């Protein structure tokens, strides 16, 4: 009996951990072939590949991001190979199971919730041509009607074989994100989250966990993302794992964790700030809302004061990148309340703020009580809300405009100096900057066309000319700094029209070759090397200064970027033209 497991990932770099657990648990009794695709792959190509495997049993791991495309593949495949048994599993089909059996007649079985034991038991019954009434955790049709067997007892995770030792995975470890779990379950009961449905937290064998991590690092894994819902729920366990990863790290490896910030113990943060190398860890923190009344409505316990302490202490330590999540559309969180939530979180000044929209997931408490708040939402995945009693669709559209420019101008870190200046000195708040710019972006139709890096600078200039023309001199100076800092090589054609004429640039470089001490820290280089590796431009203010004050027009500044192609590094210097005694010819 040939069994193939498949899924459609969001991108090639993602891997499906669930399929690997099923494979490791089912083998060697039932050899499993894994075939992974992306949601952008043409359905016919996927079907052709799966057909070439000639499976007797074909399983799919289903999520909100792939269910629609997966259904197309299933329907097409069943037409050409109707004898193949089709099995679904995963969070998207584990709830409202009867609906899926009725709406996708091509599906033969659904593995409900945790699948390792159920799937292996199902394969045993299929191979032995036996009945399915005894397979706990299985749903199927009996006499043409949905039959859902009783739930299976939770698996003892310490008995689960490693899903990371397959030879076919090793060659791609360095190119893909490796998803890793040390526990299952969540101690919280947030009404919008599927993780809240499983009561309690279970752990894998810590020794086997550590052995797998060493194996993955030794075989080239570069990004290991822990999918534990609350990695730091047990202080001693988290501290032990952090210590292990610090002591056994390999060059270039990054570990990502989902943590609950308000329960993070100060001594753990102190340990990380003292011992963790910079860039080794990334924390993803679900804030969702800073409105206590909103959190109470979704049964979410959150101490914002303690959360603030954790986030700011980690930020000040400078070792760990933080990614904070927000959800727009929670019960009774209107537009103004969400604006406050956004500004509360953005005030932390951390690296990434993820703005998402509430999804009414099947099986969650919030979906079951949607009528209480007049929720309107999509009938199909991703079940995103379209409005409720306090948030209109127009307001959702506006917040989506914020999301668009937030990703481009903050989370991608193309213009940190510029954005910080604008949100602190020009616009009323961070949210107002992103909202006004996002609305302007949408009205120009830019969300429907592509863009190059240079386009992002020019579009921000266009927006500021209308929204805040008084801020242009400082903003443009900072934008030049942002642009040059992120270049690894001397730019041939920057996004702005460089008014620094060749003769004047030559004078500047000649002066600096002879008198490098005129700029503090400027290296002693020949005029030839400076011409080869230096870029000079004028700015209205000194963008490296803390004051950012405008000076009289005859006191413009020079921004000088030195590029080291061997080290792929860039050093930026600034000085007034007057200090170099270089002025335009009359």
CATH topology assignment of the largest domain: pyruvate-formate lyase- activating enzyme
Q: What's the total count of β strands?
A: 20
User: Taking Cα atoms only, what radius of gyration do you get, to the nearest Å?
Assistant: 28 Å
Percent helix, as a range, is 25-40%
- CATH level-1 class of the largest domain: Alpha Beta
The N- and C-terminal alpha carbons lie at a distance of: 88 Å
Q: Biggest sheet, open or closed, and with what strands and sense?
A: 7 strands, mixed
Sheet with most strands: strand arrangement: 2-1-3-4-5-6-7
What number is the mean pLDDT?
Answer: 93
Please give the domain count.
Answer: 3
Question: How many helices?
Answer: 21
> What structural class do you assign from the helix and strand content?
alpha/beta
Question: Which residue ranges are poorly predicted, with pLDDT under 50 across at least 5 consecutive positions?
Answer: none
Give the DSSP E fraction (strand runs of 2 or more residues). 15-25%
């Amino acid at each position: 009996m040939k069994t193939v497991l498949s899924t459609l990932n969001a991108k090639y770099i993602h891997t499906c951990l669930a399929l690997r657990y099923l494979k490791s648990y089912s083998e060697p009794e039932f050899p499993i072939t894994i075939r992974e695709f992306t949601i952008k792959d043409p359905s016919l190509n996927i079907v052709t590949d799966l057909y070439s495997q000639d499976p007797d049993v074909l399983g799919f791991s289903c999520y909100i991001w792939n269910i629609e495309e997966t259904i197309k593949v299933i329907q097409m495949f069943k037409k050409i190979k109707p004898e193949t048994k089709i099995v679904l599993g995963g969070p998207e089909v584990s709830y409202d199971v009867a609906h899926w059996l009725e709406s996708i007649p091509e599906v033969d079985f659904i593995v409900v919730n945790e699948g390792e034991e159920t799937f292996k038991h199902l394969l045993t019954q299929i191979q032995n041509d036996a009945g399915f009434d005894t397979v706990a955790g299985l749903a199927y049709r009996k006499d043409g009607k949905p039959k859902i067997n009783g739930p299976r007892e939770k698996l003892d995770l310490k008995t689960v074989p490693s899903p990371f030792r397959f030879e076919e995975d090793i060659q791609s470890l360095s190119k893909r994100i490796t998803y890793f779990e040390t526990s299952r379950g969540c101690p919280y009961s947030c009404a919008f989250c599927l993780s809240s449905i499983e009561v309690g937290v279970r752990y894998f064998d810590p020794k086997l966990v550590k052995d797998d991590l060493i194996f993955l690092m030794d075989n080239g894994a570069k990004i290991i993302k822990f999918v534990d819902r609350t990695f730091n729920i047990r202080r001693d366990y988290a501290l032990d794992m952090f210590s292990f990863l610090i002591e056994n790290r390999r060059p270039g490896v990054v570990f990502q964790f989902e943590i609950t910030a308000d329960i993070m113990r100060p001594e753990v943060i102190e340990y990380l700030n003292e011992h963790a190398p910079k860039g080794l860890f990334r924390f993803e923190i679900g804030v969702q809302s800073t409105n206590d009344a909103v959190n109470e409505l979704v049964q979410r316990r959150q101490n914002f004061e303690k959360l603030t302490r954790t986030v700011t202490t980690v930020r000040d330590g400078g070792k760990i990148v933080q990614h904070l999540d927000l959800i727009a559309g929670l019960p009774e969180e209107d537009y103004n309340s969400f604006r406050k939530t956004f500004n509360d979180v953005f005030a932390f000044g951390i690296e990434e703020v993820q703005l998402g929209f509430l999804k009414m997931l099947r099986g969650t408490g919030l979906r079951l009580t949607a009528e209480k708040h007049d929720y309107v939402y999509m009938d199909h995945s991703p079940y995103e809300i379209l409005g409720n009693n306090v948030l209109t669709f127009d307001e959702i559209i506006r917040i989506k405009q914020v999301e668009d420019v937030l990703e481009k101008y903050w989370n991608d870190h193309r213009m940190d100096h510029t954005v910080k200046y604008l949100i602190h000195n020009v616009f009323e708040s961070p949210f107002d900057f992103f909202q006004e710019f996002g609305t302007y972006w949408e009205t120009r139709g830019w969300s429907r066309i592509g863009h190059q890096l240079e386009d992002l600078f020019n579009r921000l200039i266009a927006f500021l000319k209308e929204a805040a023309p008084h801020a242009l001199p400082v903003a443009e100076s900072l934008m030049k700094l942002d642009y040059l800092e992120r270049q690894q090589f001397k730019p041939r054609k920057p996004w702005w029209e460089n008014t620094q004429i060749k003769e004047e640039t030559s004078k500047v470089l000649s002066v600096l070759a002879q008198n490098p001490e005129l700029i503090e820290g400027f290296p002693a280089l020949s005029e030839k090397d400076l011409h080869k590796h230096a870029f000079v431009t004028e700015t209205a203010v000194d963008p490296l200064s803390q004051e950012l004050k405008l000076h009289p027009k005859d006191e413009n500044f020079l921004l000088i970027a030195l590029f080291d192609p061997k080290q792929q590094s860039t050093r930026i210097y600034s000085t007034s033209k007057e200090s170099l005694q270089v002025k335009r010819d009359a």
